[in-house]
Design goal:
The chain is an alpha+beta fold. The chain has two domains: 92 residues, Phosphorylase Kinase, domain 1 (2-Layer Sandwich); 177 residues, ATP-grasp fold, B domain (D-amino Acid Aminotransferase, Chain A, domain 1). Helices cover 31% and strands 24% of the residues. The strands form four sheets. Strands 8, 9, 12, 13, 14, 15 and 16 form a seven-stranded antiparallel β-sheet that branches. Strand 4 and strand 5 form a beta hairpin. Helix 1 packs parallel to helix 8.
Length: 301
Amino acid sequence: MNTEAAPLLTTQIPGLKLCNRGKVRDIYEINDSLLIVATDRISAFDVVLPNGIPYKGKVLTGLSEFWFQYTLNIIENHLITTKIEHMHNSIITQHKNLLEGRSMLVKKVAVVPVECVIRGYLAGSGWKEYQNTQSICGIKLPPGLKESEQLPEPIFTPSTKATSGHDENIPFSKVVDSIGKKLAEELKEKSMKVYLKASDYARNKGIIICDTKFEWGVTKDNKTILIDEALTPDSSRFWPLEGYKPGVPQHSYDKQFIRDYLESIHWDKKPPAPTLPPNIIQKTSEKYLNAYKTLTGKSLI
């Protein structure tokens, strides 16, 4: 597989107002909309790594668009278009080569400051917490569960939305205290709905969605809609159904591969992050591209 394209690490678009440069996305303000540009930056343990991953931004944008369309019949979202010609902006058109395939024009909304995590399987920080307390985010779980095991039913395990540093798992009661019971219940219900629909689809394509996180926003007319990205290898753990075996860590289509490499070299998880070797970059790019192809049936390259 050819993953030799030079990764895009940052964007500068004269004439557009940059309002935020996140770990992965550069966000520009255009009247009542936002232009979200997914670069090829990658972060691990909340630190942006020095290397980009070829095609990563296009995978994130393409998969988000796919899931936004797939779930539109049950949940509204912020996507207006990913087509440069439909954005009707001469500055964007001038930078078509840079922006095509990695840009979303979206509605501007009030962001709800909660990461809405749904877990269907026991992995990551959830597995660590379960080993210590037999619960996750205050939700008691049955004894004797193994690493990577499917939970009796998916659970809603929210976390703080940290602007810097690490997000922290919090009990549902803290979400209620923060944003009110009505909105908290709505986020829980809508997040679960999207996860169940998407995980059924993905399983039929040979991918287990172990867990995922959603972000939500409230429109001017008070509708709660899905925002940011949706069900990508950055925001989810994707496991191949073939070869799935509880009791051990799983192979994955997501950035867990990078985390595992960084753990293996005993990095202290503080900036600056180490440079990634070419084979790790190549393999990660292939994993992202494979996830896109497996889920959508289309090839990006």
